[in-house]
Amino acid sequence: MTDIVLTTLNARYAHASLGLRYLRANLGALRERSCIREFVIGQKSEEIVEKILAEQPRIVGIGVYIWNVEEATRLVAMLKAIAPEVIVVLGGPEVSYETNESRICGYADYVVTGWGDVTLAKLCAQLLGGDRPAAKIMPGEQPPLDQIVMPYGEYDDEDVSRRHIYVEASRGCPFKCEFCLSALDKTAWPFPLDAFLAQIESLWQRGVRQFKFVDRTFNLKVDTSLAILDFFLAKLDANPADPPFVHFELIPDHLPDKLKAGIMKFPAGTLQFEIGIQTFDPVTQARISRRQKNDVAEANIRWLHEHSQAHLHVDLIAGLPGEDVDSFAAGFDRLVRMGPHEIQFGILKRLRGAPIARHTLPHGLRFNPEPPYNILATDVIDFATMQRLSRFARYWDIVANSGRYPRTTLLLLGESPFAHFLALSDWLYAKTKQTHALAHERLVHLLHEHLLDVRALDRSEVEAAVLADYRDAGGRTRLAFEAPDSVLPAPRPRKAAGATPARQARHLGAADGAS
Description:
Layout: E1 4-10, H1 18-25, E2 34-40, H2 45-53, E3 59-63, H3 69-82, E4 87-91, H4 103-107, E5 110-113, H5 119-128, E6 137-139, H6 157-162, E7 165-167, E8 170-172, E9 188-190, H7 193-205, E10 210-213, H8 222-238, E11 245-250, H9 257-263, E12 271-278, H10 282-287, H11 294-307, E13 311-318, H12 325-336, E14 342-347, E15 366-367, E16 375-377, H13 383-401, H14 406-413, H15 417-432, H16 440-454, H17 459-472, H18 502-513
Parallel strand pairs: 1-2, 1-3, 3-4, 4-5, 5-6, 7-10, 10-11, 11-12, 12-13, 13-14
Antiparallel strand pairs: 8-9, 15-16
């Protein structure tokens, strides 16, 4: 019997919830009367409810996010129908704003908005003591970070061996970009550095080698950034055969020389930087309260590409208020020329509470009324065009971002990357009516056909590129355009798993093979 069950539906099994672990670590005396039970979207609600109720809980706390709110709503409705005596407490960004308009909140007993580390513990103590607060909505208390118990001891051995480990050296963000909920933060707050690094050391000793930092602004305070980089560099120096892989989110226009010097010390396969550009259009940037020195940001990305071995993942957002396709295309082409390994082509979403909503009427923003609240049309991009952009984003991910087709992608993009890839996207959809579940061999043949029949490129160049990409990605069958008596390669031996994730490792190999 467990009095408190903390649960959520993750997007994938590998995504261990950092939020649940914070909540359990901060329950104090109630921690031993609690447990974490995580599930994955797509699981049957009946099975989830059965497993939760098998713990015989008195309180169930559920983390609600944009990716799981629909299934979480069904879960809560079913849980209350079967066991109405169980007290359901919700938390998370999806229920922290516009709470009274959220259907899931209607089923719940209590909703904690904002930070829940301290507030949930106090609420559970009241409820288990027989005191039912009258107020349903409880604003989360925001304590100093040195009063929050760090959550890293809540990662169990299965998490360490099989799942992504999320960590944060700071919370909040000083910037006010209106598409992001962090625009509501007053600033960024650091955790005590020595205590944080002690926790990371503990994870390292337990065998963790992949660390994903969820900080919005890792390089805001460079001395702290360098201290964290030095921690991982020391691990690398002590045992080069057992390297870390560390993911950080960087501010694009803030890369002083001493941080560059630290970054240069890391070999390939150890650092990944997620860099939010979002838009290069200065008018759009001003409209959404985004401060960014575009020339400095471009120079920094080019420097990282040319002088570091970090894996670069750079974000752009289509559908921002007032930005048309031509402006987005110019920014996309500009970014392609900088050479990042991946470009995350995002479609604007209206996160609950985000200030972007203030542009709805002035710029004709029409959002999907259901999660994930993606933009459907604006006053300068109609619905049909937005659909084309959404398909572009999906095909870009499976062709360019996947790292499977480096040589082929160079041929596809040519001198006009956006225009050429949009033409491919339109053609692929007309041929297949699919944006997912395209088998590897089928996609290889489609790319081959497009480059020859639509782009009219040189056959020998196309077939050499497509075949080399196919073989490097593990393809061992004979493609339709190969000679029937061609010699097929032997099956590729399985590689031992390393710290570098597979997709990033493909990009590292592609950089050598496509050059």
